[in-house]
Each structure stands twice: as C-alpha cells, then as structure tokens.
Design goal:
455 residues, alpha/beta, Rossmann fold, 18 helices, globular
C-alpha cells in the first residue's frame, strides 16, 4: 500500500503547530488546499456518482439504452455523453449539457457549506495561499462571500478567480500580492470550458498544471479533500511532478477505512511524503481545522483579526427576518449561554430539535436526483413520469422549527447540518461548544414565545 496512514489527531497537532505562528500578511503560507466534489456534497450538490444516477434515470424514462463504453473512458464521461447526446434537439432548450450542470450546482442556492466557509476563513486568516477546486459550482466563491465584513475587526479580502486556465494569457504572477486565489481546475458553470468529459480534462490539464506551478508554493504542503484519485488532470500532474513537489507533504483525506489507490497515487507516493488521513466528512474536518488553529488557542493578546466568530458559522437570511418574530435575546433567558448549560438542558434541546432537523434532511436528500434534472428535460423529455414535485417556499418548514427552537436564523441547509452535528454524539466537544455558542448568539427570548420547561 502506498503512502503512510496518519490519525486525524496527529495531523491536527501538526496543523495547529504550523498555523500558530502564521503571518496573515505573508505571501507564502503553510498550506495550499485542493478540494473536489466531496467538499461540496453537504451543500446539496451531487457527487459524480449521483449525477450518473440522475442521467441513468433520465435515460430510463426517455427510452435511451445505455451500453458499456468498451474503452478506458470514465463512467461519468461516457454516461454524460451518451445520454445527453441521444436526446433530440429542441430550439427552445439547445444546451441540455449546460442546463444539467447548472441545475446540479443550483441546489446549493448560493449558500456556502461549512467546508467552503471555513476554507475561505482559513485562507484570509493566513493558512492557505490558494485553493484549487475541480468543482463547477460557486462554493469556493460563496465561502468568501459569506465571510463577515466591516465588523468585529474583520477585513474582507476579495479572491482572484481563475475560471479557465486555458484562456489565461497572462502569468498568474500578475495577481496582486497577498490576494487569495481560487483556481477552477475543471472550469466553472458559467463557461463552456467545462471539464465535463475525459477529453476536456486532458485538454485543460497542461494549463492547470502550469498555473499551479506559477502560484506561490506552500511552505509545508498540500491538503487534498474530497478529490477523486482517478483523475488524470492538471492537479495530479502538478502533484506528481518530482521537482515541484520535492520536500512537500501531501495530506490526502478520505472517508472510510479504505485508502485511495490509483496509478496517480502510486506515482505521488514515490515523489512526495504522502499521508492518508481518515475523516468523517469534509465539514467535520474543516470545523476541526478552524477549532485547532483559532478557537482552541484563542488569546486576547493576539492582535490578528479573528478568522470567524462562532455566530458567523450560521447563514443569515433577510427573507427570514421579514416574517420572523423579532424578540431580542436576553442573557438571562433559557437559551443563553450554551457554555453554561447543564447536561440536562443540552439533552432537552437535542430531544426537541434533532428529530425535526433529521426529518428536514431526509426530505432534502429524497429530492436530490429529481432536482438534478432541469425542467427542460423533466417536462419535455420525461413528461409526467417523475411523480415528484419541488417543495414550496421553505417558510412553513422554518416556522415549524422556529416553534421548536426560537432562533434568529432560518433553517437553511448549512444551519441544519451544523446544528445536527453539534447535537450528534460523535461531535468533537470543542467543536460542539463553538457551534452551540454561535447558535446561542442568534437566540430569541423563549419566554416570549414558548414555555421551555423540560418535560
């Protein structure tokens, strides 16, 4: 087996040590981040395997027979070309391929998940110099958009985005100093230069590899999260370049006990110090990274701006504000402050809130495949064969959860997942405390809405 196994706790010790003396004004940083589709999954954006399922379902209801490729082409590339290429053209919907991609990424509704929110915070906080993402979605950008601006001593730094490495005629060295960089290694959903099929990936690869080589190299190494080892793209070509990667450590994070294995991984293990680290999921990892590098070591004498306040973990919504009861939180109310709760109070919150959140999560997941398919295909091609419909505006669901726990944020996908994590038994105690403290900052005085006497 290639590479070395490393426990998450051991990695976090190394990470915290390297980040403790970070300089937010430095041009070089301890790490660079490479993130793939697994990093966007908690935002509601499907993985390649789930997109394949959606296309196979579309093929079934459209009478399209799928054959084996008989070549080395990946299943995703083959199914994508085969299904969308077989649909009859229509002047009203000429871009089936792009419609499909846009519908998949639109499930996030512009809301960054915890992974990308914290990746942006860690970047602006001096940990990552740049982020390389294979994803077509706008999660990496949304993470920066979601950062607090103009209060609590925070300063927003606009990232420079390289949407299409092939069309970037000028060197990345022209990017202003200290500006965070997002490199879209497979293109972006707003362009036609998408790395959708294998041929597109191969065409983009040398340009992406060149861009990575030109970006400021990390001092210590790379974090690889949610990225498939099966790509032969510019990322793997850069990481397996002996001169480029020499002296760097590559931390490859994976879910489940089985380590990634591929010819590319084999090559990487020969040219770099490759460490495999098993994690629960990307959100859990980034919450731990944030906690280890900032929350755990909080020091009032540290004059660096805070990466993120716990209350800013949660998405705020102007739509929610227009209809929610606007009672201000009081420090002597039942909800506040979570750090001083007894275990009895925590278990009461869990008993009341967790089942409703889990039901909302199940409803959301049940709609995944259906919502991946754009209306142009569901209505014209499939007709009425899909016996599912999109939910109405989420206000009714929000109201139901508000009645259970009166909070000043809506139960969007990120907010639900953060609360579920904090209320789950496997949550790291430090992370749980930060999430609950952040949630408590959005609390309303429950005496004005509900009787929260434990029953």
């Amino acid at each position: 087996m290639t590479g070395k196994a490393m426990s998450l706790d051991n990695f976090l010790g190394v990470f915290a040590s390297l980040c403790r003396d970070r300089d937010t004004e430095a041009e070089t940083r301890p790490f660079s981040l490479i993130i793939g589709a697994g990093g966007s999954r908690s935002a509601g954006i499907p993985l390649a395997s789930e997109m394949i399922r959606a296309l196979e379902e579309l093929a079934r209801v459209s009478g399209i027979r799928l054959a084996d490729s008989g070549t080395a082409e990946t299943k995703w590339s083959w199914v994508f070309r085969q299904v969308l290429g077989a649909l009859s053209p229509d002047h009203s919907f000429p871009e089936y391929a792009r419609d499909f991609v846009v519908e998949c990424v639109s499930r996030a509704r512009g809301e960054a998940n915890a992974t990308h929110l914290l990746a942006a915070a860690l970047t602006n906080g001096g940990v990552f110099r740049y982020i390389v993402t294979t994803n077509f979605d706008d999660q990496a950008l949304a993470g920066f958009w979601s950062l607090p601006r103009g209060h609590k001593g925070t300063k927003y730094i606009e990232p420079h985005v390289i949407y299409d490495a092939a069309s970037t005629s000028r060197s990345v060295s022209n990017i202003a100093a200290k500006v965070p960089v997002i490199l879209k290694a497979h293109g972006h959903h707003t362009t036609y230069g998408l790395g959708i099929v294998d041929a597109d990936i191969h065409a983009l690869a040398p340009h992406v590899m060149r861009a990575i080589h030109q970006l400021p190299a990390p001092i210590h190494g790379f974090l690889v999260v949610g990225y498939s080892e099966n790509w032969n793209d510019g990322i793997m070509r850069a990481l397996t370049d002996n001169v480029f990667i020499k002296g760097k450590t590559v931390y490859w994070f994976h879910i489940g006990p089985k380590r990634p294995a591929s010819p590319g991984i084999e090559t990487l293990s020969r040219v770099a110090d490759l460490r495999f680290v098993q994690i629960a999921d990307s959100d859990d990892l980034f919450l731990r990274l944030w906690w280890e590098s900032e929350a755990r070591w909080y020091d009032e004498s540290d004059d660096r701006q805070a990466m993120l306040d716990p209350t800013d973990l949660f998405t705020f919504s102007a739509t929610f504000r227009r209809w929610a009861p606007m009672h201000l939180v009081a420090k002597n109310c039942w909800w506040y402050p979570p750090r001083e709760w007894s275990s009895r109070k925590f278990h009461e919150v869990k008993r009341r809130l967790l089942p409703a959140l889990l039901r909302a999560e199940k409803d959301d997941e049940d709609l995944l495949i259906y919502q991946c398919l754009p209306d142009s295909l569901k209505s014209r091609i499939a007709g009425g064969q899909f016996h599912v419909s999109d939910p109405q505006l989420p206000h009714a669901e929000w109201q139901n959860l508000f009645e259970i726990m009166p909070l000043g944020v809506p139960w969007t996908r990120r907010n639900r997942k953060l609360a579920i994590r904090a209320l789950s038994k496997n949550c790291h105690p430090g992370v749980r405390a930060e999430i609950m403290e952040g949630l408590g900052g959005w609390g309303y005085d429950p005496r004005l809405t509900l009787d929260f006497t434990p029953t």
